[in-house]
Each structure stands twice: as C-alpha cells, then as structure tokens.
C-alpha cells in the first residue's frame, strides 16, 4: 500500500486524486492533506479518508480543531506544508498547489527521497535545476501529472535518452484559438475561463488563453527531461487526443493518446510502474473524425516566444517570468487590468530584469520579490 500526501487537496487535481484513490482502497492510504481557504471541503475529505496530518489557513486550523478528531495533527498551510511533504510515513507526494508557493514543499519532498507527482509546473519553472539536482542526490522519483509531461514520461520509458531527437509538446490552443486578436481587448474574465477541453483552475485557464501555460511547459520539459529548448516543438492540436510525442534519431515517433481526463495521468503517477483499470471510457478510434495540427501563432500569442527566450537565456529569467505572470493574471482576474495587459506587464518586467546566475534559493527568492514589486508598479500604470 502506497502512503500518499496531497498538497492542494481541495483543488481540481486534489479532488481528482482522491477520486482515483477511492477506487483502490487497498492500494493507497491518504496520510496528509493540505488546503488554503476551503477548509469545509477539507473537513469532508478528512472524515472520508482519515489522514493523520493536515494543513490549512489559520482560520481553517481553528475550525478543524473544533470539528475534527483530536488525534489529527494540524499545521499552518503558510509555514508548515513542507513538514507534510517530508513526513517519514509518506511514500508519494502529489503537488496540486497553485503557483510558486509549491517550491519549498516540492524541494522538501525530493530532499526526503519521496516519489513526487507534480501537477504544479511553476516550481519547476522557477527552480527546476535545483529540484532535479536534489532529486538525483537523494534518489527521489519525479513523475509528472500534467497530461503533456505525463505523455512524454510514458513515451520515454525503456528508451535511451541519447537517441531522443525532438519532443513535440501539444496544446489545444486554449479558448482563444479561433478568436481574432482584434477582439482580445474586450474579452471578459468569464469568456477567458471557458476552456474548450479541460476543467482547470482559474489561473492556469488564463495562462492557457495566452499560451503562457504552454511556455511554462516548455521550461518544465527542459527541467524534467534534461533537454534543450531547441529540442522542443509546440504543436497546436485542438482535439487534445495526442497529449505529446517524442521523436528519436532514427525518425521513429512515439505518441501517447487518450481521452481528456486528468484522472488518467494522475492514476498513472500513483500506480507507476504498474497500470490499473481507470473505469473511464476508452478512446474510440472509429468515432474520431480527424487529428489536426497547427503551428502556434506567435504574433497572436507572444507569451510563448517570451517563455522560449527566457529559458534560452536561463538564470533568474524563468523565475521573473513566472512571478510577473502570477501578478498580472491575478490583476486580470480581479478586474484591475484588461486581458491584453497581461502580456504587456510580463514582457516589461522581463525586459527590465538584469539576469543573475542561480547559485541557490536566495537568488530565486530575490528575483521573485523584485519581479512582483516591478509588476505591481506596472499594473498600477495600466
């Protein structure tokens, strides 16, 4: 039985992870759960899955202490999530937390030698080199949960990395694939949050609309699979059936195909190296009409090109890209800036940044703070 901690258990990834675990009560045991403000849902999860350790906001901590079993150990989600990620009684850590806040728990998990299943890409964007270097030191295993990264991981199983030529990273195109850029300035939050294929959190849905999410995945791919950005090609694949492909030097291409349901890559990460029945419908090849591919329109979605530029230059630039994007997307979701200003803010911050070689976490933290402050100043001017 694998003992599991889920960081961000009340978000879409956490909820789907618990759905998978519920189907296999003899295979998995929930040891730890964390959430921020949705402590009432967290309480329901605690009663159902009976973890021994949880983390929540201060308000949530008070609520859980009053309403849950006294034997439950309750931690502060803002300061102590890393303790749950590194618990001796945990074998596998699922990271469904949003944003760069996942960095320290992710790092704690790999330093403790855990198997880590990240759905969070920001931590790898910000400090992927540090995380993967620590994973090699401790023997930790990182099995990505994002559908595209999971597809690459699966396609590379049993293959020699020296024979890898190109990774084809697919993208649905997001909610604006067929929308004219001339109308972008008038798009509302509600319109942007209507993703055609996936049900995701608000921030990642906005990033899918700008294609910044795909840019982050490019950076994430370089970290996870130790490849150069020029070895990665992004393909717009609106059907979202092929989740990614890898090409080898002999011209052979392996692809991973499935229906669009996050429970598939989540279950693969949980059960790896075994595969188990998901209970989901299979892909029906006779029902498929076509599989199409387009080049990304970089003039229409310049965030993708900016992400490529950031990882090519390296250093603290990917961290700055991520921090500025988090601030800009939050400003859009709160109605403080227009959709078109998201890229404006991020691009200005990136251009103004003086790149620093990353020697440790202090360089990351300093760049992150600078980028957020600079983004805040630009947002006030928009």
Description:
The protein is an alpha/beta fold and 382 residues long. The protein has a domain of 141 residues: NAD(P)-binding Rossmann-like Domain (Rossmann fold). It has 15 helices and eleven strands. A seven-stranded parallel sheet has the order 4-3-2-1-5-6-7, sandwiched between helices. Helix 6 packs parallel to helix 10 and helix 14 packs across helix 15. The chain is globular, with a radius of gyration of 20 Å. The relative contact order is 0.11. The model has no long low-confidence stretch (mean pLDDT 95).
Classify the secondary structure makeup into a structural class: alpha/beta
Q: Average the pLDDT over all residues and give the rounded result.
A: 95
Principal-axes geometry comes out as globular
Order of strands, widest sheet: 4-3-2-1-5-6-7
CATH topology of the domain at 2-142: Rossmann fold
Helix content: 40-55%
Number of helices: 15
**Number of strand elements:** 11
The major sheet is characterized as: 7 strands, parallel
Task: Give the name of the CATH superfamily of the domain at 2-142.
Answer: NAD(P)-binding Rossmann-like Domain
Mind telling me the C-alpha Rg? 20 Å
Question: In a few lines, what is going on in this structure?
Answer:
With 382 residues, the protein is α/β, with parallel strands linked by helices.
């Amino acid at each position: 039985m694998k003992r599991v901690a889920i960081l961000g258990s009340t978000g879409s990834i956490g909820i789907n992870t618990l759905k998978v675990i519920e189907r296999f009560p003899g295979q998995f045991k929930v040891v730890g759960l964390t959430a921020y403000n949705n402590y009432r849902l967290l309480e329901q999860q605690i009663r159902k899955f009976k973890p021994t350790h949880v983390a929540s906001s201060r308000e949530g901590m008070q609520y859980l202490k009053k309403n849950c079993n006294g034997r439950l150990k309750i931690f502060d989600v803002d300061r102590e999530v890393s303790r749950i990620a590194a618990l001796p009684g945990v074998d596998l850590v699922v990271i469904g937390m949003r944003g760069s806040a996942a960095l320290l728990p992710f790092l704690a998990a790999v330093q403790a030698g855990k198997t880590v299943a990240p759905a969070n890409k920001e931590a790898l964007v910000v400090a992927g080199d540090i995380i993967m270097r620590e994973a090699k030191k401790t023997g930790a295993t990182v099995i990505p949960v994002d559908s595209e990264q999971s597809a690459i991981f699966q396609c590379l199983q049993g293959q020699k990395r020296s024979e890898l030529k190109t990774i084809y990273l697919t993208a649905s195109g997001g909610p604006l694939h067929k929308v004219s850029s001339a109308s972008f300035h008038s798009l509302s939050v509600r319109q942007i949050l209507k993703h055609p294929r996936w049900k995701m959190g608000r921030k990642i849905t906005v990033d899918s609309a700008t294609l910044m999410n795909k840019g982050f995945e490019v950076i994430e791919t370089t970290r996870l699979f130790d490849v150069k950005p020029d070895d990665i090609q992004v393909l717009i694949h609106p059907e979202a059936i092929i989740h990614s492909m890898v090409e080898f030097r002999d011209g052979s291409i392996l692809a991973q195909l499935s229906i669009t349901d996050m429970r598939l890559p989540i279950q693969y990460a949980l059960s790896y190296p075994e595969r188990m029945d998901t209970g989901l419908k299979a892909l029906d090849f006779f029902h498929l009409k076509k599989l199409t591919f387009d080049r990304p329109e970089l003039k229409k979605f310049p965030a993708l090109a900016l992400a490529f530029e950031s990882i090519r230059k390296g250093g603290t630039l990917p961290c700055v890209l991520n921090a500025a994007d988090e601030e800009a997307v939050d400003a859009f979701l709160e109605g403080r800036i227009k959709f078109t200003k998201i890229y404006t803010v991020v691009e200005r911050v990136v251009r103004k940044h003086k790149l620093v070689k990353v020697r440790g976490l202090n360089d990351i933290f300093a760049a992150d703070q600078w980028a957020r402050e600079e983004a805040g100043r630009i947002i006030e001017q928009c």
